[in-house]
Design goal:
With 383 residues, the chain is α/β, with parallel strands linked by helices. It has 13 helices and 11 strands. The protein has helices at 16-23, 68-77, 97-122, 149-159, 185-194, 214-219, 223-243, 246-249, 264-276, 295-301, 312-322, 348-360, 365-379, and strands at residues 7-13, 30-32, 40-42, 59-60, 82-87, 135-141, 165-170, 197-200, 255-257, 303-306, 328-329. Strand 5 (82-87), helix 3 (97-122) and strand 6 form a beta-alpha-beta unit. Bound molecules: 2,4-dioxo-1,2,3,4-tetrahydropyrimidine-5-carboxylic acid.
Length: 383
Amino acid sequence: MSRPLVVDVHTHVYPPSYMAMLRARKTVPYIHDPASGEPRLIILSSDDDPSIPIDERGRPVDTSYSDINVKLTFMQQHGIDCSVISLANPWLDFLDPAEAQQWAERINNDLEETCAQNNKSSNPDNNLPLQGRSTLFALATLPLSAPSADIIVNEIKRLKTLPHIRGVIMGTSGLGNGLDDEQLGPVWAALEETQFLLFLHPHYGLPDEAFGGAEVTKRYGHVLPLALGFPLETTIAVTRMLLSRVFDNFPRLQILLAHSGGTLPFLAGRIESCIMHERKFVENGGDVPGPQRSIWEVLKTNIFLDAVVYGTAGLKAAVAAGGGTDRLMFGTDHPFFPPLNEGEKEWLSVTTNYKAIDATFEGETEAVAAVLGGNAARILKLE
Ligand code: 5CU
């Protein structure tokens, strides 16, 4: 039997132009070049700890973050046929409003060009199936700090003319006030109209106090912010969207949630129950219009989940919450979570996800094929 198509929907790049911009900065996010040794990437606020010497802050950043050939080699080493690349966090969130539009256009054009060049050389006549060809598509970035929502909407419309762009990636801060901000209405409407997939991805995590204070966070490195801060940030962001009735007002919005939805699949029942019991909502005698569509309906019609959760329990919750295997898509989170030992070719983070998919859907050949690539090819129209 032929092996299934493998599509990676969660894989990041910092195009060289973005790396250069980070190198020119001295506040988070920035890249520091020590006098000797590898450059350091300081993107999380917890990375920029003044008690740590600057040459040791953050993490080493090698060519896997920006060189597309390194990603292509990684794809070949891990049996990945097609990657849907996206700018990594913190995207353009931090930019001065006056610069946002120009940077978004530049990064998005860079992504489009990277995909076009690559696909042309791997399939000059553009007539072969995806399998075995190291094909690239992209999710674009938005100028969210731009002075008006019109600029963001115009960029979404422009993106529709770029043949390899299949959606956009966004963090949880929106225009600065979270994703329940009414000012985001035109952006949701433009995403609905273009039927672009919105990849919702965390960056800001939770405040140190949630983990017991800065000393505790620091003691365990990136574990608390990444293992717990990221997934809870995503869960809170999408729950705020639900509560503010974004899914009632924009019922055709299509969202891919990073890391299998954070903790949303596991907490969906509790969130729904709290809504049913909230006296503030009009339905229960209050004066705040509550969400009309249930979280279960939203999970089954508006939300897709990646399979980047490293275990069978998370995958089973994702499938149960989404009502089946047709809304779950393989991802790697490359270039994050590389092997600890230099020269190691197989990434533990990737093999763990592959094994979790195999174990969760043991004997269900069609389900495995759907999750590994069939769903992504269908949902993102990767032809
Ligand atoms: O390791 C990390 O900090 C990250 C990150 O920042 N973004 C991401 O997508 N995955 C891991």
